[in-house]
Amino acid sequence: MYARISTLEGSPEHIDEELRQVRENILPQIQQQEGFKGMAALADRQTGKTLGITFWESEEALEASEEAAGRLREDSAEAMSDTIADVERYEVGLFEVPSAGPVSGVTDTVGGATDSVRGVTDNLLGGEEKQR
Question: What residues have CB less than 8 Å from 96, skipping those under 6 apart?
Fold first, then answer.
């Protein structure tokens, strides 16, 4: 598995709007790319810095998604008046997401409302629930 990490810097006041934009506009488009395995968006409400991490089944899938990802990243940065600070690519050495138990691990918070994200762990684990 491979990952691309896009770092954007913007206004802390726009974090909720930026996360909404990613969920409603960016994610549906990137999900259509062949080899897409998942996405995480991290935000620092103090600095306005956000990290978008996309996961890909292979290095070839990561490379094939570059053009679309670049376009989406630029559109998102422009819409929020953000600066693209960095884009990095990595091979994923370890990836563990709890799929059940008292710590759900994967949640979605916007505007103070928290909802469980259903199906994320299955998608990230290749469509199969990991058994211990």
Answer: none
Name the β-bridge partners of 2.
56, 91
What would the pLDDT profile of 37-50 be if each residue is shown by its tens digit?
999 999 999 999 99
Asked if residue 113 is part of any domain, the answer here is no
Give the end-to-end CA distance of the chain in Å, rounded to a whole number: 20
Residues 6+ apart with CB under 8 A from 128: 122
Segments forming the whole domain that contains residue 31:
2-95
pTM as predicted: 0.73
Residues, the chain, total? 132
User: CATH number, domain at 69?
Assistant: 3.30.70.100
Q: Is residue 116 part of a domain?
A: no
Q: What is the pLDDT of residue 100?
A: 61
Q: Cα separations (Å) of 32 from 16, 35, 93, 109, 121?
A: 24, 9, 25, 24, 18
Structural domains of the chain, count: 1
